[in-house]
DNA sequence: AGTACCACCTGACGGC
DNA sequence: TGCCGTCAGGTGGTAC
């Protein structure tokens, strides 16, 4: 699930639920996703106030008043959930950040592909993980530069976190569908006008998806994401049967009639 | 340089 | 009901 729009929705959720609160304790239920020791995580966070949240691509940073920030990455199945003391801890909760009155924030992740880390410096973290610029705060001229000098399929480039950070399988399909570009098109075969539209559609898809709280059923009618995974998937525009093919190693949906 | 494949994990789903 | 293969929205490594 968690690509840029999803993680942005998580970030805003944290602002509403835990921002300004003091972390009383941290409980580690699964060490597998931890990049630091349990002791270090706990001692770094205990007694700290959550000051702000940031996002870069699919990474979420939780800044405290002193000391390192928490880094959350969600893999394919991760999310965060804030609960009151009497509410049940979600299944597959891996880390619990506990606040006053035993309220807590759960980092939940069924498949354990995510990571929880600490960093002193977000910029350094981003560089150290070789992440490109965040896709939602990218100028058109930077976007154009990123697409230069490669013959790869456009979908693979959009998903390459080293080039631009935040786009995964679902949203690369959506952006390409909205821009009517075939996922296998080599980047160097794109017209300037197509690149411009691709850029505009990318930002528009982020905006609409975030406004829909990244829930497919709340997205605009003409979004591909709404229809993903349905039995006989049809193009919301021309009603042709959608194609399913592997591009960039991932299952991709596209309309063979609308996308060229 | 670009792509294909595997591995990491867990669970849901469909076919038999 | 149960077993099995397949697939899932991420990422990193290796091998052609």
Topology:
Blueprint: H1 4-17, E1 25-28, H2 38-45, E2 50-56, E3 59-64, E4 69-73, E5 78-83, E6 93-98, E7 104-109, E8 115-119, H3 122-128, H4 140-146, H5 154-159, H6 169-178, H7 192-211, E9 243-247, E10 250-254
Antiparallel strand pairs: 1-6, 2-3, 3-4, 4-8, 5-7, 6-7, 9-10
The protein binds a DNA duplex (16 and 16 nucleotides) through helix 6.
Structural account:
With 260 residues, the chain is α+β, with helices and mostly antiparallel strands. 28% of the residues lie in helices and 21% in strands. It has seven helices and ten strands. The chain has helices at residues 4-17, 38-45, 122-128, 140-146, 154-159, 169-178, 192-211, and strands at residues 25-28, 50-56, 59-64, 69-73, 78-83, 93-98, 104-109, 115-119, 243-247, 250-254. The chain has a four-stranded antiparallel β-sheet. Strands 2-3-4-8 form a four-stranded antiparallel β-sheet, with helices on both faces. It is globular, with a radius of gyration of 20 Å. The chain binds a DNA duplex (16 and 16 nucleotides) through helix 6.
Cross-sheet strand order for the largest sheet: 1-6-7-5
| Overall pLDDT level | 95
Rg computed from alpha carbons, rounded to a whole number of angstroms: 20 Å
> Per the principal axes of the C-alpha atoms, what is the gross shape?
globular
Number of helices: 7
N-to-C SSE string, H for helix and E for strand: HEHEEEEEEEHHHHHEE
Give helix % range: 25-40%
Percentage beta strand: 15-25%
Biggest sheet architecture:
4 strands, antiparallel
For the secondary structure, the number of strands is: 10
Distance between the termini: 27 Å
Unreliably modeled segments: none
Main structural class? alpha+beta
């Amino acid at each position: 699930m968690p690509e840029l729009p999803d993680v942005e929705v998580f970030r805003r959720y944290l602002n509403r639920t835990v921002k300004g609160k003091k972390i009383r304790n941290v409980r580690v239920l699964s060490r597998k996703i931890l990049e630091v020791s349990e002791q270090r995580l706990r001692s770094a966070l205990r007694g700290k106030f959550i000051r702000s949240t940031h996002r870069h691509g699919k990474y979420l940073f939780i800044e405290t008043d002193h000391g390192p920030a928490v880094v959350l990455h969600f893999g394919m199945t991760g999310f965060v959930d804030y609960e009151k003391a009497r509410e049940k801890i979600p299944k597959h909760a891996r880390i619990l950040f506990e606040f006053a009155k035993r309220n807590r924030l759960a980092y939940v992740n069924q498949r354990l592909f995510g990571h929880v880390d600490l960093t002193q410096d977000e910029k350094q973290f981003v560089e150290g993980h070789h992440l490109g610029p965040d896709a939602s705060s990218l100028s058109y001229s930077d976007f154009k530069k990123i697409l230069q000098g490669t013959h790869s399929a456009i979908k693979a480039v959009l998903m390459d976190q080293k080039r631009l950070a935040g786009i995964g399988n679902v949203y690369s399909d959506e952006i390409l569908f909205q821009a009517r570009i075939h996922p296998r098109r080599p980047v160097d075969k794109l017209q300037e006008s197509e690149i411009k539209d691709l850029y505009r559609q990318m930002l528009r898809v982020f905006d609409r998806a975030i406004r829909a709280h990244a829930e497919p059923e709340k997205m605009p009618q003409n979004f591909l994401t709404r229809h993903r995974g349905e039995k006989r998937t049809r193009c919301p525009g021309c009603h042709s049967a959608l194609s399913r093919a592997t591009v960039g190693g991932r299952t991709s949906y596209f309309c063979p009639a609308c996308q060229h």
